[in-house]
Every structure is written in C-alpha cells, then in structure tokens.
Amino acid sequence: MKIAAIAFNTFREAIRDRILYSLLAFALAMLGGSVILSTLSVGGEARIIKDLGLAAIGLVGTLIAVFIGVGLVYKEVERRTLYTIITKPIRRLDFIVGKFLGLGLTLAVSVAIMAVGLLLLASPIEARLTWELLLPVALTFLKLMVVTAIAVLFSTFSTPTLSAIFTLALVVVGSLAEDLKLFASTFGGPVLQTALVALYLVLPNLATLDIGGRVVHGLPVPAAAAGLAAAYALTYVAALLAAAVWIFQYRDFK
User: Fold this and answer.
1) CA–CA separation, 220 and 157 (whole Å)
2) Which of 62, 126, 131, 136 is the most exposed place for a label (fewest CB within 10 A)?
3) 3-state class of 15 per DSSP?
4) pLDDT digits (tens, 9 = 90+) for 182-210
5) Rounded-to-integer distance, Cα 107 and Cα 103, Å
6) How far is the C-alpha of 97 from the C-alpha of 105, rounded, in Å?
7) If 0-12 CB within 10 Å is exposed, 13-18 middle and 19+ buried, where does residue 201 land?
8) What span, in angstroms and rounded, lies between the C-alpha atoms of 209 and 180?
9) d(CA 8, CA 69)
10) Which residues contact 46 (CB under 8 A, 6 or more apart)?
11) How far apart are CA 21 and CA 49, in angstroms?
12) Is the separation of the CB atoms in 83 and 250 below 8 Å?
C-alpha cells in the first residue's frame, strides 16, 4: 500500500513535468517524419516507418527514463521532503521501489501512446493491423525499465548531472555489449579477453532486448529467445534495485 502510494505520487509528479511532453512531442514528430521519408522509397515504405518508429520509441523512452529517473531521489533531498518521509513508518526499500514503479508507470503510458501512433501509421500501408510490432515494443519497454533502474541506482548517491552521464554511458556500452564480446574474441589477448568478458557479464546487455530489426525485416524471433531476454531484464532490474536499496539504506541524511 505504501509502495503504491509513493508510485502514484511519483507518476503524478512525472506527468506534470514539461520535459515529458516535450519528449513525447519529439517522438510523435519523428513518427510523422518517417512517413515523409517513406515516400522517398519504392516498395519499402512500411519498413522505413516501422524501423524509424521503433527507433523513436527506444530513443525517447531512454531520454525519459534518464532525465526523469536521475532526479527521483535528488529532488526529494533538495526539497527536503525526504526528511519528512523518512521520519514516518516508511521503509527506505518502499521509497525506492515506489519511485521506480512510479516512473515505470509513466514509461508504460508514454510507450503505449507512441506504440499506438506507430500502429496507426504502419497498419494502413500494409492493409492489416501490424501486431508483430508489439513484441519489440514490449521488449523495448523492459529495456527502459533496466535503464530506469540504472538511473535510480545512481540517483541514490550522486547528483542528477553525474547520474545522467553515468546512466547514458552504461546505456551506450550495454547497447554495444555483443560487439565488445566479439572484439575480445577476435583481437584480444588472454588478459584483455578475460577483462572484456568479465565486463560483458557484469554490464547490462541491452542488445538482447533489441529485436526491432529482425521483426521489421520479417525474420523469426524464437519465443524462447524473447522469454530469456525478458527474464534477463527482470533479473537485472531486481539486482539493480537491490543495490540501490542497499546504498540508500546506509545513506545518512542528518
């Protein structure tokens, strides 16, 4: 109940943030721009709209997760509202999880709005409802939950600026995780290979959640692979939140 109340308050604050509407407007503009670009192609209109649409959902969702997520804890400290909260019978675990779920709900609504826009643009061109886009959208949402958990983790001990830099850096590295592993196996010596493989195992592998390219080009996506990717994301989120709660638990606010 306490977690739900914190999550709802976080959602309510997030939807009042003007940056959210600016980013959503940017996403819808990108979707509209994909229609114009598709007219330059012959026979590939639907593919361009799907490709750019999924890219817009991932990009804008990441920006929302980072720029709102990094301030979740810091703003409460700055406003000194956190000092009131921690004096009440509310566990710090409830506070962190509630904040995370509140932003997760904001992202769910934002992704749903963008996904509806993409379906409305892509479906008429193929004269059918393009349901297959829902799977990459769902995995993109899980990727955004991982990004949100990273942002919340950094927000428990750092400033919003540094948290944003650290989170964006991890997003970039996580998106290139498979390339990092390939580089290690191709060019690295034993020591470099061990170091890069260790990094590959520890850092978030966001590339496993990006199946948009396969769906757009009509390639099959095995259900087992999608299920494993979803399980990986949820496990990683749980680990990040556990670390965030542990750090926040021992932080002194006196």
Assistant:
1) 42
2) 131
3) coil
4) 777 776 677 777 777 777 778 888 888 88
5) 6
6) 12
7) exposed
8) 16
9) 15
10) 38, 122, 125, 126, 130
11) 22
12) no
Token pair of 22 as six digits: 């600016």
Per-residue pLDDT of 69-118, as tens digits, reads 888 777 777 777 777 776 777 788 888 899 899 999 999 998 999 899 88
Q: Do 72 and 155 form a contact (C-beta atoms < 8 A)? A: yes
Rounded to whole angstroms, how far apart are CA atoms 115 and 50? 10
CA 138 to chain centre: 11
Cα–Cα dist 204/215, whole Å = 22
Measured CA to CA, the distance from residue 129 to residue 54 in angstroms comes to 16
77 C-beta neighbours (distance < 10 Å), count:
13
Q: How far apart are CA 212 and CA 172, in angstroms?
A: 17
The one-letter code for the residue type at 9 is N
Report d(CA 158, CA 162) in Å as an integer: 6
